[in-house]
Amino acid sequence: MAFRGGRYNHAPVKWRKLRTFLLTVLILLLIPATRFYQIDEPLLRWLRGKHQVDPLALHVSGEFVENNLGTEQNADGSVTVRMIAQQYLFIPHCILVPAGVPVHLRITSADAVHSLAFMSTDYNVKVSPGSISEAELQFPKAGEYKTACREFCGAGHYAMRSEVRVVPRDQFPALRDGERGNCAAQ
Amino acid sequence: MPRSRPNYAFSRARWSAAQLVVLTLLALAVTALFVRAADNPSDHVPSFVEWTPETIAQASSGDPFRGMLLARHCEHCHGTEGFSDKGSTPNLAAMDRLALWKELEDFRAHKRVAFPMNPIAEDLSHKDMVDLAAYYAKLPIFYDPEDKRVFPRPLPGLAQKNMAWRLVTFGDGERGIPPCQACHGPIAYRPGAPSLMTQNSDYLLAQLEAFAHRTRANDINEPMRTIADLLTDEERLALAAYYGSGLGMQPGSSWPSK
Q1: Which of B38, B53, B178, B204 is 20 to 30 Å from the Cα of A76, by its Cα?
Q2: B-chain residues within 8 Å CB-CB of A6?
Q3: How far apart are CA B36 and CA B138, in angstroms?
Q4: Which residues of B touch A45 (CB under 8 A)?
Q5: What whole-number distance in Å separates Cα of residue A117 and Cα of residue A162?
């Protein structure tokens, strides 16, 4: 039996049943329609949060486009490093960071699971396609650090290495807004 | 005058929780229609190709027979059997269809600039590109001595051969150069990476140099620009000579050949 009470519910049961039926039909049509026309993509992206990306479209738009990779200077003195790991390279191949400064690493994979290990340090960041791995690093001494992939990723895995060039803080180039530091600039 | 009957179906009623949820979703969906992720126009996009399963399926669905008819226009430069008689023009025989399609797509979008190909690709429809790729992917790569093709070149010297062999088979771990055969075959391929087994050495050298000098920049996530930049001039020459002489037909053995 339908509920007949309520201060404003003047409608007879017949009409209320019709109303409920129409709304149900609307729901049943709306849910697949939003998915089919991909109307819910921005909503889903918002729900997924900032830690997920499309590994196949990194180069087209978003955080990991070519000109956004590398070292970015933050207002508080720290730096953010954005990288892509893909079979069988870390990109950028050489990153330039200042010594003794917090380094926020943001890295994602374009294909397989990789792991970015910094030699002679304890840092080892696992990288999976579809999600952004974050790590807080700090290099107290200037010098060159080698990195390598520590997760078997395919035929070229053993050659998947890159380097981090740590320079004294005062030698790190002053970056303008939107500019990215790289090894060639040094 | 008869009193009009109130429309009960749309009269003011108490909303149920389910109805509220539905209406909220509807409102969000309508809002989402107008909200688009703002793409930064200053971003450098190397290529509009995304290797999604749908793209791969579409690019692999070409009709080789129709491609054969269309390929009559390509013969003048790329050869009747997909082998060019000019070293600077690429051989297309048995090239991976995804790689062929991607290059045509990049030529069309001016993501890769090479004089005759940009206007040619602009005139091709999507179906033409897919069919051409299907046709060239089917061509055999046996060697015909009667043909005036420049492939294969004479074998390079031993030092050059071993330098290239090392890079093709193992890469260079010290410098972080991955082995060529891990993406360009024959031991493994990745979507969009062309097979280099029967490629002209002049063309290969020109492309490696173009990648190193960034005059060609249509490699997704810049692997080839990075690698070509890490290679020395001698290594680029050696690699071009290695593939250009047909040594890339077999996977690199575990020991350099004499």
Answers
A1: B38
A2: 13-14
A3: 42
A4: 37
A5: 10
Q: Which fold has domain A55-185?
A: Immunoglobulin-like (2.60.40)
Q: What is the pLDDT of residues B178-194, one digit of tens each?
A: 999 999 988 888 999 99
Give the residues of chain B that fall short of pLDDT 70: 1-15, 32-41, 143-147, 251-258
Per-residue pLDDT tens digits for B118-147:
999 999 999 999 999 999 999 988 766 666
Q: What is the CATH number of domain B158-249?
A: 1.10.760.10
Question: Which chain A residue has its CA at the smallest distance from B28's CA?
Answer: A43
B153, B244 contact by CB (below 8 A): yes
E strand or H helix at A72: strand A70-73
- CB-facing half-sphere around the CA of A24: CA atoms within 13 A: 6
- Picking from A42, A66, A92, the nearest residue to B35 by CB comes out as A42
Question: Which residue is listed with tokens 């002679």?
Answer: A120
Domain range list for chain A:
1-49, 55-185
The span from the CA of B209 to the CA of A38, in Å, is 42
Q: What is the ipTM of this complex?
A: 0.77
Pairing of strands A161-167, A94-98: parallel
Q: What CATH number was assigned to the domain covering residues B53-138?
A: 1.10.760.10
Closest residue on chain A to B11 (Cα): A11
- The DSSP call for residue B16 is P
Chains A, B: CB contacts under 8 A, how many? 142
Residue by residue, DSSP assigns A83-147 as: EEEETTEEESSEEEEETTS-EEEEEEESSS-EEEEETTSS-EEEE-BTB-EEEEE---S-EEEEE
